[in-house]
Amino acid sequence: MFETFEAYITAKGHFTREELQLMRSLAIVKRYRRRQLLLKEGEVCQYKMFITKGLLKTYCLKNDGTEHIMRFAPENTWTTDHESFSKQIPSKANIEALEPTEVLLWTQDSLDRIMKAVPAFRTYLDALISNTLNSTYERILMNISYTSEEKYQDFISTYPDIFRRVPLHMVASYLGVSRETLSRIRHAQLKQQKLEP
Prior knowledge:
Blueprint: H1 2-10, H2 17-26, E1 28-32, E2 37-39, E3 48-53, E4 55-61, E5 67-74, E6 77-79, H3 82-87, E7 94-97, E8 101-106, H4 108-117, H5 119-145, H6 148-158, H7 160-165, H8 168-175, H9 179-195
Antiparallel strand pairs: 1-8, 2-7, 3-6, 3-8, 4-5, 4-7
Organism: Chitinophaga pinensis (strain ATCC 43595 / DSM 2588 / LMG 13176 / NBRC 15968 / NCIMB 11800 / UQM 2034)
Protein name: Transcriptional regulator, Crp/Fnr family
InterPro entries: cNMP-bd_dom (IPR000595), cNMP-bd_dom_sf (IPR018490), RmlC-like_jellyroll (IPR014710)
């Protein structure tokens, strides 16, 4: 499992054998079943998670049980509840495995140790945080300015692999549209594709 992470991280920068060994020694390996929670609302998030296999979703539940999906995390991506993890406060979100999933987990103390010993890893994490902020900004912009059709088109072009792996109601939840609206959009697009030569 660590080999997947090693291939990923060495593509992002140069790391010595000793530095990689330190990362490995501080990683916690976990496997989760489909529908198993990695984090439950109200718990304090203890880990930054790297997904080596599988797919996770981060979501919030309204009082009526309605689910609002904030993000999907497939293989070779990171996830956490950043606010809960960094401030050590109760999470407002849940993180759940959508498929059998394998992850590497690091605590804040472990990450601090790695960043002190491995400057290239600190540089990488700084870039990762910056990219995450940019993605969050783009998602907010999309939610307030895109039509439902544009949101759908953006999702399937940006995340084609995830689109094939999750049910339509989850895509609708992520996009902030009703399942009926998303079904109508898909039907209209399929009809249009059939009309095109």
